[in-house]
Each structure stands twice: as structure tokens, then as C-alpha cells.
């Protein structure tokens, strides 16, 4: 298995970050697929797939690269650069590192991607010179066309996942915060993260720590590495389906009231009162009043993190939502 080793200093400096580059790569990989298995992404995929496929097919370089990215277990390092480490990262902050890679590295990484693919590929489409700038141009087009128009909504979902995991981190530590980031990702021992179960050498994370980067359109996770020891773990957000409308008028609504029932359901993922107010289209005062009642009934609990209070369901609250 591949282990990511962290010193105590690296662990203390590990943090969450956003990456428009990772969001773009993940989205383009999904759009390249003929069908979408995840039902909560099917509508988005069906809306854009034909247009995306037609545009990519018009350029042999783009068609070859996208087909390879969507059918390999080895995403090339030049397209998966770790972000700078900020929640305010823009694509303009990330693309220069993509465009700066020399052709020799591009060829080496794409060759490894072909070796780790479950489809048959050749690299005949890799013609001319200056391949990395062409990759950066393709990613910039994907961002402008398919991600940027809905980035505010996506960003809100990404921040909500980070809020949830930050609450787990503050309460239970990194092992719990990493739970369900990926099928094979887990905390191992006192100082290591298991990234996958394949054979491979351990990696040592630098003293600046590990970055954890959520993406909203992905069915898997991947590791971003930059010399000498910068690492970022990209993972799909949890509970995307929970963002969809929940059925109303059931037993829980009749028991505690529609708004309080909506708050309890929304806390499938912990959230602040402001997030609850925004997501449920209620006033902050109304949400605050309901939160007080739900806390008094031991259905939810709050944990202070800096200037925020993160609310989550208690075991009693979980039982009530599950049984109502």
C-alpha cells in the first residue's frame, strides 16, 4: 500500500484548500464518459456531454488527452499540480505551473498514464512541440465553459464539506476528518495516511503539511505531488445527493414542525446557522430560534471553531430522522 508519512509539524500544518484546476480536471473526466452512473450528477452530465464531446473531437490533441485522462489510474502530474494552499485560489494562480512543464516530462507522464489505463491508447496525437501550454489552454477552456458559470454554487458546496470536516477535525482529530474521503483512504498508525492499497513506496509529506482539496464533480480521489515534498489529496465531497430537495409532509414534519424537520435533515452535513439559513431560505433569526429548541431537546449540538459554531445532529437526532 502507498502511505503518506507526516511529521508532527506537517500534521499540525495540514489544512483544506480549494483548487479550480482540480475541479476542472474532475469535471472534464466525467463529461468524457458516455454515461453517468451517479444519479445525482446525471442531469448535469446529460446537459453538457454532447456539446463537450463535439468540441473536444474537433481537436485531435484535446480528444487524445481527454480520452486518456478519463480511462487511466495515473493522472499525469503536470495536470494535477497541488494548489498554492488557499481558499481563494483561482485558476489563474494554478495554470502557469501547468504551462511551464517541458515536453520531456509531459511525454514521460503520459506514457505512465497509458501504462496504467484500462483502455488501449497510443500517443500519435502528441504532435509538434510545446504540449504543456496546449494542456493549460484546454483546461482554461473547460473552466470557462463548464465550471465558471456555476462556480458560486459549486464553491458553496465545497466550503460546506470543508466546514463539516473542520468540525470533525476540531472534535475528533484527523482520523475522523479523513473518514469517507475515498474508499481506500484511511488513517494508519500515528503518522500516516493510506492513500491506496496498490504496491508503492511511502511518500514523505513536507513540513508545510498536506492539503486536502474537495471537488464537487468526481467519483474518485487522486494525489497531487510537486517536488520536493508538496502533496495534496483531492477527494469528492460527501452527501452531494443530500443537497437535493427532501420530501416534505412526512411524520418528522408533523412531529417537530416543517422548518425544524428541514434543519434536522440538512444536518446530514454539519453546518453553521448562516449556512442553514441560506440553504433553507429562512431568516437567520428564524433558524436561530429553531436551533435553540432543537438543542434543548438534545437533537442537535454545536461546536465552536474560531468565530463559528458548527451544528450537527446528536445520536438522538440521527435516530429521529432515520425512523421518522
UniProtKB/TrEMBL annotation:
In terms of CDD domains, this protein maps to: HTH_ARSR
Q: Any keyword DNA-binding?
A: yes
Q: Which GO terms describe its molecular function?
A: DNA binding; DNA-binding transcription factor activity
Q: Which residues form the HTH arsR-type domain?
A: 240-324
List the InterPro entries.
ArsR-like_HTH, HTH_ArsR_DNA-bd_dom, Metal_resp_trans_reg, WH-like_DNA-bd_sf, WH_DNA-bd_sf
Q: Enumerate the SUPFAM superfamilies for this protein.
A: Winged helix' DNA-binding domain
Record's SMART domains? HTH_ARSR
What are the record keywords, sorted?
DNA-binding, Transcription, Transcription regulation
Q: Which PROSITE patterns does the annotation name? A: HTH_ARSR_2
Protein name, please?
DNA-binding transcriptional ArsR family regulator
Source organism per UniProt: Kutzneria kofuensis
Organism lineage string: Bacteria, Bacillati, Actinomycetota, Actinomycetes, Pseudonocardiales
